[in-house]
Amino acid sequence: MEQLSGADSVFLSMETPTTPTHVGGMTILDLSEAPDFCFEKLLEVLEERIPIEPRYTMKLRATSYGIDRPYLVHDPDFDVRNHVKRIAVPSPGGLKELAELVSFLHASPLERDKPLWEMWLIEGAENGRVAMYSKTHHCLMDGQAGSDLGELLCDMEPNPKTPPSALRREPRVITQFSDFELSLRAAREVIGAPGRLLGFVGKVISQTTASMRAARKDPEAPPPPSAVPRLSFNAKVGKKRVFACSSVSLSDVKEIKKHFDVTVNDVVLAVSGTAMRNYLAKRGELPEESLVAMIAISTREEGDSSVGNKITSIPVSWATDLEDPVARLLQVHTNADKAKEFSKNYDADLISGMGAALPPALASLMFRSAGDYASLFMPANVIVSNVRGTPIPLYTAGAKIECMYPISVLMDGMGLNLTVVSYMDRFDFGYIADPALVPDLWELAEAIPAATAELLEAARKTPAPAARSVRKKRSAEARK
Questions:
Q1: The model scores a pTM over 0.85
Q2: Do 204 and 120 share a structural domain?
Q3: What CATH number does the domain containing 135 carry?
Q4: Total Cβ atoms within 10 A of residue 209
Q5: In 3D, which of 41, 35, 39, 101 has the Cα closest to residue 405?
Q6: What is the CATH classification number for the domain harbouring 420?
Q7: In what order do the strands lie in the sheet containing 58-61?
Q8: Count of the separate structural domains present in the chain
Q9: Which end of the chain is least crowded, N or C, by CB within 10 Å?
Q10: Which domain covers residue 448, as residue numbers?
């Protein structure tokens, strides 16, 4: 038995009939060197390794009247085969056909009466490949924890002679509580709730005030919600989902990073900002002020491989008001530095605070009631997450993973989300949206390689010393 943390509990409370809060991913497997790969072999690998992490064999147990955070308890009926299914994609089984099927699978919520994850083996992909789509409720994992979960399922060689390190680690100890102990713990939560709620409200007011002051003093500081422009996809979302993806070379991204003396995250934000700007300009919807991206940041310590949510988020001005892509990259670098500096001085992790302060029943009621008004209080236009993967090839049941496209969540007020994963020599971009709000999502995804090529060409035409001089000058001006 394990009680969910404050952040984990919030992701459960946020879930509504139109906003399921699971994350997922689509991986494509190359079977050319794995002739024995099949559905049964995949099941064998999962049956062997999933029990190593107890959370994936446990189901939810809510507390009476939702006054305390839920628990994860042992599922006596757990069977991997209840979570893994097979399906085929219509011919020709290309990337868009796979994405269309995954869009449908991702739209449905997970069943709460069993462990909160599932996986689909998708057969019939072109060139003799197969794909895997998996989804896990966000209350169980964040992006970095998802990478650690992959350690259980993936190998660094097709047929390892020794088990992966994850299988050799000591299983976590799970504490058991009696019904009486659970009642006492819930009573303590009720008694302490008013104080925690006042503290949380005070923190929100303090940070909002600080954000507004910073924005007035420095235009490059994290923008307050009142400065976020409202767009067509910043509205209440429906039940349907559309998924689109693309990839760029990690080497190209690193060349841009090195040339302009910025970070990889800056390049990701810049190219996605270019794609977003062009998309909106074509539709006559590009605002004069810059869009705001909410970037997710892991708060997990080095070497922490625990499963659970240890993330925070910071709003960053996306510099979509600048036409020149190089100017946009340099401005994004300055804005991101400012945002990170701001987050050190103020507690940006309000998700955990909310989970600790509000009883789950109250938090759930709040999220459901706020759906129609979410666009009035949204802190950003789009969430952009960058998850660090592995530079070496991985294998599942002997088959090599070619690519891994991430899929995240939507919420009322933000009907578009972008997540990026680095894998081998590539960055895989995964967009998810409400098709009623973003009817042509592939146009955004397919604009990413073009935006990267544009920056790469600019880097090769601009002498590096000059580029770095401009960047340092902008940073110095920003510090003043």
A1: yes
A2: no
A3: 3.30.559.10
A4: 11
A5: 101
A6: 3.30.559.30
A7: 2-3, 71-74, 58-61
A8: 2
A9: C
A10: 194-391+401-479
